[in-house]
Amino acid sequence: MFPKPKSVLLPNTYAFESEPMVKPTGFREYDARWLFQKEINLMGVQALGMGLGALIAELGVSQEIVTGHDFRGYSASIKYALISGLMAAGCKVHDIGLAVTPMAYFAQFDLDVPCVAMVTASHNDNGWTGVKMGANRPLTFGPDEMTRLKEIVLNAEFKNKVGGSYQFHENYPARYIADLTNRPKLKRKLKVVAACGNGTAGAFAPQVLEAIGCEVIPLDTELDHTFPKYNPNPEDMEMLHAIRDAVLHHKADVGLGFDGDGDRCGVVDNTGEEIFADKVGVMLARDMSAIHKDAQFIVDVKSTGLFITDPVLQKQGAKTAYWKTGHSYMKRRTNETGALAGFEKSGHFFFNKPYGRGYDDGLVSAIAICDMLDRAPGKSMADLKNALPKTWSSPTMSPHCADEVKYGVIDAVVKHFEALEKKGAKIGGQSIRDLVTVNGVRVTVEDGSWGLVRASSNKPELVVVVESPVSEQRMHDMFEMVNSVLRTHPEVGEYNQKI
């Protein structure tokens, strides 16, 4: 018998070394994230592996799984604890070693393996760990699977059996890189800054971009799990500003920034201005819908209103639907609808054939951006961006809110706006034109300005985004309106960044 996990154990004690610790809040909507040693220990990770193996069997899927780990000082040890649990549950484990997350997704197809468990904390700060899991390629788990996994692990409902095995796939990255680069070279000579924040993508991104024909300026591509410059997250202004400086210094055509596990790509244009991922999505949608008739796109609720209102997309017959934020939700919806692509404001992009296999890969996104520039030889990245109708958009802003209370706060905020809409009340002197409540609440007023509030799926935070097609002042007005509602809830703390 394996002990039932405890939610809290003190480090440097007998119990910590002899019992599993798994804090329940680490099971998120579509993946798992914990502070290592504070919320989960190695025996807890082992329990997670046994639980995942049991769930895979319960789902009626063959117990064969790909594993890999990101570049953090503790990720390899966590992966081996996870593997020991998976093998105890009877799984055949295919270990691809140090990897970006999309390399593990690719391996599911390449090795013909149904399941995946990638050890990564993605863009979270050092100290965090986590696992991205799936049992139905190219999809990853959603709330139903995560809820069941949580029950199995926390109640120690393990179904361990003999028959588990382990196989290490030597030099696996070469197969992933070959798959991405087995294509015609770019006709246009592009000078590209590849920024990796000393994270995992540094081992792979520069050579992929070089192989498709780019001149690459590497920026913080040396692997260093202390992340000495900044956290590898292309949504954070610190990373974007570092890319800006490099683009201007080297007179590059574009700056591409990859997050800690390589499934997202941030963009800085040739003038050094960052382009938020949803606007990049509109640019790519324009490029793709010019080639593919009646193209369908899925975008998350944090994304710009331009997907609906852009005259070029309308003229090209493109159709767009908004959906829940979160890589698993977006991946699933893009897959179910057969959309050409799905775009998430955080930078998770999902390309179906002929561009990709439906999973999020920052390098596939980077290649799509280079191809877009290749098809517009007389235009710079700034030209393509400036051709979009002007809107004023905020970055993603995240006020602290504990995991235990954040969903309750969001329920109250949704009810607040629903009541205002029902009464026909005005906010900031304008009527509510539209409420989208598939994921938190997105409130749009008469002039097209909108604000979104939702719970973060992987951190103890809320998420706030605002945009206006009218003026920068109206964007600020929407933020003040949303923030004034949040300030009525004392559980909501300080923001990580503000406009």
Automatic annotation (TrEMBL):
Cofactor or coenzyme needed: Mg(2+)
Domain Alpha-D-phosphohexomutase alpha/beta/alpha: 26-158, 175-272, 278-390
CDD domains: PMM_PGM
InterPro entries recorded: A-D-PHexomutase_a/b/a-I (IPR005844), A-D-PHexomutase_a/b/a-I/II/III (IPR016055), A-D-PHexomutase_a/b/a-II (IPR005845), A-D-PHexomutase_a/b/a-III (IPR005846), A-D-PHexomutase_C (IPR005843), A-D-PHexomutase_C_sf (IPR036900), Alpha-D-phosphohexomutase_SF (IPR005841)
Domain Alpha-D-phosphohexomutase C-terminal: start-end pairs: 426-482
Keywords: Isomerase, Magnesium, Metal-binding, Phosphoprotein
Domain of life: Bacteria
GO molecular function: intramolecular phosphotransferase activity; metal ion binding
Listed Pfam families: PGM_PMM_I, PGM_PMM_II, PGM_PMM_III, PGM_PMM_IV
Any single GO BP term: carbohydrate metabolic process
Keyword Membrane in annotation: no
Family, similarity comment: Belongs to the phosphohexose mutase family.
PANTHER family in UniProt: PHOSPHOMANNOMUTASE, PHOSPHOMANNOMUTASE_PHOSPHOGLUCOMUTASE
Protein name as annotated: Phosphomannomutase/phosphoglucomutase
